[in-house]
Automatic annotation (TrEMBL):
Pathway connected to this protein: Amino-acid biosynthesis; L-cysteine biosynthesis; L-cysteine from L-homocysteine and L-serine: step 1/2
Name listed for the protein in its UniProt record: Cystathionine beta-synthase
SUPFAM superfamilies, alphabetized: CBS-domain pair (SSF54631), Tryptophan synthase beta subunit-like PLP-dependent enzymes (SSF53686)
GO biological process: cysteine biosynthetic process from serine; cysteine biosynthetic process via cystathionine
Required co-factors: pyridoxal 5'-phosphate
Organism lineage: Bacteria, Candidatus Eiseniibacteriota
Residues the record lists as binding pyridoxal 5'-phosphate: 92, 199-203, 293
Family, per entry: Belongs to the cysteine synthase/cystathionine beta-synthase family.
Broad class of enzyme this protein falls into: lyase
Amino acid sequence: MSPSPPSPKAADHPVLAGVEYHETILEAIGRTPLVRIRRLSQDCRCPVLAKMENLNPGGSVKDRIGLAMVEAAERDGRLKPGGTIVECTSGNTGLGLAMVAAIKGYRAVLCMPDKVSSEKVNLLKAFGAEVLLSPTAVAPDSPESYYSVAKRIAAERPGAFLANQYFNPANPQAHYDTTGPELWRQTGGRITHFVAGMGTGGTISGTARYLKEHEPRVQVIGADPVGSILKHYHETHELSEAHTYKIEGVGEDFIPGATDFALVDRVIACSDRDGLNTARRLAREEAIFTGGSGGMAVWVALQVARDLAGDALVVVILPDTGERYLSKVHNDEWMRDNHLLDPSANTARDLLSAKSRRVPALLSVQAGEPLKRALALVEQHDVTQIPVFRGSELVGTLYDSDILRAALGDPTAVDKPVEGWMAAPLPIVTSAEPLERVTRLLAARNPAVLVREDGAMLGILTRFDMLQFIAGGE
């Protein structure tokens, strides 16, 4: 069952007598709360609750299995005092094991794919673990894969124990003993749908077994990133070719023994774009900070909830904190560089900030100025449209084609006021305008829009600016 809450205990120091406290950080694992997803689920008739595993002391659901696998190995005699814990991990299980190793006095050697964020690597080292990185784009049976490296280290080092989370029965058992009972108690047995990301399969399998023993009608839905083979295997029992994807810590290119596919009713695939942008929306709209796998799980939970009646109750596992992904999913530049940024999750100000790194945000002329002033701006900055102001009032627009035509047709035109070639003013949006609406304006025969904030004009956004922002170009 779940670890008991802090309570007065027989203390080894008289001052602690009667004080409620945990003897070590390991006793704080589990008993995470359920939090309702409100804004993102506004179009759902039933509530969607998130199990906040990011609030575990190590910041992820993997704290549960880190402790459980070590304790099982101690009981079985596979791990003895002074031994070394070895594991292949995308980071979170490694942190759970590193925490246990630090408390219990073991060494920890953790093998990871090189696609993991630098935050995860540095975090593991902070707990005293040795970290070895391996290439991501190799087959699991390659000698270079992080699976193979972990096996080799475990075989070569005396007293080493390979945690082997993918095939360790203590992995799903930890969730049968803790996560499942917690969900059943927290929901009063009213949970109807359980959603979890699929990686090792321990979370979904152990929790599902407990829930279905208490209510066989509970539906269990796995979330799998596009590129992983788990959805296809669940539906066909056939292996398929895996493809690379950006969401970390979920999906596989082989079949983990810790997964009991018979307990999973269906698997829904989620793209990198949907999963990662949902993680960003959770932070901005729900103040829930999670990584890409959490965004993926919530995206799948919302797909499920939209088809359900109001008497259903969907619970989704939020597996880890977003702090490990500040350089990736929660970094605008990384998202743009990987062509994953969702314009609907950003505002006109976001796009202007990105543009200002390349050129001045707003180039304009005043009514009455000579056309050669506008011509100089076109030549210097390669712009195609220039707003015309009379004081602070927007009165028109100059286009490069009209400026060029005038200059070529009449050499004296460049000395005449710009009003003679001025077209209608461009549309104006506020800096808080969602890029989704800005995109619609640009697609509706408007080559550009102006952005205003607190009465002042901040800049101009063009179709080219929008394309560069989404695609990550410079």
